[in-house]
Amino acid sequence: MTAEPFHILGADRPSRWLITCDHATNRVPDCVGGGSLGIAPADMERHIAYDIGAAGVTRRLAERLDAPAILSDFSRLVIDPNRGEDDPTLVMRLYDATLIPVNRHVDQAEVERRLQAFHRPYHLALEGLAARRADTVICAVHSFTPRLVGRAERPWHVGVLYSHRDPRLALSLLARLRAEGDLCVGENEPYGGHLDGDSIDRHALAPGRPNVLVEIRHDLIRGADGQIAWADRLAPILEAALADADL
Fold it and tell me: Hey, which bits of the chain come out as E strands?
């Protein structure tokens, strides 16, 4: 494993924005299953292992907003940093019809080891970045699969996820995205925007920071061109939405 289970970009950038990418990579460190979770390489390239394209969008978006960014450096299948420590889906044993052999018989001692090695250091670093300014605004970047196994196609190009506890920035962003006219925009789609103990709950809702979570359909950002295009499009929209919300 690397020295730290995360990457921080632009820690000294001046913007009040903080861009996060909880599911940036499909990397399995050598200390977990010898670097393999026992599933096929093709499955490790699927959305079950990471948010395809989200890291590239995060890097570019952070540059455009002159903001710091933090990206995880371990697969969500190792342990999911966007879950609370007591969440039953923290270490997935079955995900979108794929069994995860190395996780099937994980005991609490192994979960604790992964928390200590990956999950907690990531959140400690995120907490430090968020606290660098009193007026930090968090934008979490994720991507979603166009279709789960056995399910209908998902029509949305982009989803805006938020909690009922603080919808302010999200509602402004939804209005701005819908005004673009050429996007199918999901509101708390393709899934609900609040989960107790997740990254936004922990680092934005609990301390009262403005926040939004953006989900982009991953076929639109699988390649570098799409990642750049979406980040370049989102940056001014996010800035305008923040101004609209007067936060």
Answer: 6-9, 17-21, 69-72, 94-95, 98-99, 137-144, 158-161, 185-187, 211-217
197-to-13, 81, 208 alpha-carbon distances in Å: 28, 10, 14
Distance, CA of 119 to CA of 22 (rounded, Å): 10
pTM above 0.90, yes or no: yes
The CATH code for residues 6-245 is: 3.40.630.40
Picking from 227, 156, 152, 149, the residue whose alpha carbon sits closest to that of residue 190 is 156
Specify the pairing of strand 137-144 against strand 98-99.
unpaired
Q: Rounded CA gap, 143 and 152, in Å?
A: 17
- Cβ-based neighbour number of residue 166 at 10 Å: 18
Distance between CA atoms of residues 84 and 220, nearest Å: 29
- Number of H helices and E strands in the chain, helices first, is 7, 9
At residue 3 the predicted structure's pLDDT band, cuts being 50, 70 and 90, is low
User: Measured at the alpha carbon of residue 215, what is the angle toward residues 15 and 189, in degrees to the nearest 5?
Assistant: 130
Tell whether the model's pLDDT for residue 171 goes beyond 90: yes
Cβ atoms of 235 and 163 closer than 8 Å = no
Q: What is the DSSP letter of 214?
A: E
